[in-house]
Input
Amino acid sequence: MSRIIFCLLVWACHLGRPMAFAQERNNANSTLSESDLLFVQHLMDSREFSDAILVLQAMKGAERHTAAKSDSIHLILGRAFYLQEKIDSSNKYFGLVRPESALSTEAGIFLAFGKMYQCRNNEAEEQLKSMNQGDSVNLEFIGYMRAVNALVSKDFSRYEALSRNFRFHCRASEWEQKQLGFRAEEQKKNKRKSPWLAGAMSALLPGSGKFYAGYRGQAIATLIPCLIFGAAGVESYFRSGPKSIPFIASTSLFSLFYLGNIWGSAISVKTLYEQKDREIRHHLLLNVQVPMHRLFRQ
Output
């Protein structure tokens, strides 16, 4: 609470206006001044996002603004929430920027990214498709975002169609666009493998299912104890008989490792696929986020 009061006092001192004039700003003709926005931008640059949000919401609630100033407030609020990773709130304010505003391209791109981040890929595509006007730089970046969104959605035919239109007019994303083909190949190679086949392979040869899944180091680690306890069971059978304690102990351990090897192999197929899928998605989104920040100088 003390931080909020301090922020509002600093804001009031920054404006340096008499109380009587401050009251006049509540009428229908008052607008947000450039010095207000500069102060908020100072808070943003200082990474005082919560304070910037507080000041902007106080301005928004206390005054009536022109449509252009409202767009500025909504855009900066969207940025502040976005930088706090509060994507629902950032999407709300980016979505309030009017389509005819000069700020609509920036707001629309961040809104589309927020939807991609939330796995709302179809909504992100519709948002990007609606942004079909602007200069060649912004249109190039929008096309690049659509191609990335297609890869995240695993729609490879749409990706191929969109990537053929790359002209590399946007320097902010040029490097990432040229690397996107490698990401596409990585995505295509990450295919689901059969857990049934992995389990059957491990039943025939312990560890082979893990090798099939992609865990090659674990395959050897799984095979060795099965061989050791299996060999110990065979030896104790011939030496002491099937009712001996060494035989029972070794076969029990063998059974435990053998069954665990089958179950673990079946599960590892799904685990590795999902782990790799998350990793690829993270890199794809990062390859949008970084040039997006370059483009708009966040």
Notes: Confidence is low (pLDDT under 50) at residues 4-31. The CA atoms of residues 227 and 254 lie 8 Å apart. The chain has three domains: 1-102, 104-189, 195-282. The two ends are 28 Å apart (CA to CA).
